[in-house]
Amino acid sequence: MQGRVLRVYENTFGIKGAKGYIAHETANEEDIQKHREGGDGPNPKDLHFDMTRKPDSEWNEAVLEVLLKTLREEEVDDDSIPCRSDAYLLEMLSNRFIVVQRAWKEGQSRKTPSSPKEKQKQTVKRVHEEDVDGRQAARKLQRRRCVSFYTLRIGGHH
Predict the structure, then answer these.
(1) What whole-number distance in Å separates Cα of residue 36 and Cα of residue 63?
(2) DSSP single-letter state for residue 23
């Protein structure tokens, strides 16, 4: 089911992987305000999350409903998908939003000591360095786990 959620995100937004959302254009504030006042909701053909708000914001819930509808339409075409409740699927879609929103936030310019905002090159460099550091830390942790597991197994045979 997780794979289907990822595919719906990829097909809807044209973005593969969470890091791709760094450049996602957040929803227009004017459209969000109109929606709050009873106007039209998100355009299913040009869907944008409000990356500045939580998944349970009125706008983002409307976007998640569009994604749910898309996921349900996929189910009709493929009877091998187990039947899941809307609440379950919305939870999965919402969890994915949290992941892509985190990537989007990481990619936003930050204040620096020398200027009010990072330049684009600085932001790209920072995001890349954080990604490399994170992968190095994960590899180091994995090696420790493997060594610990091996040590415990060998130690248990004496």
Answers:
(1) 14
(2) G
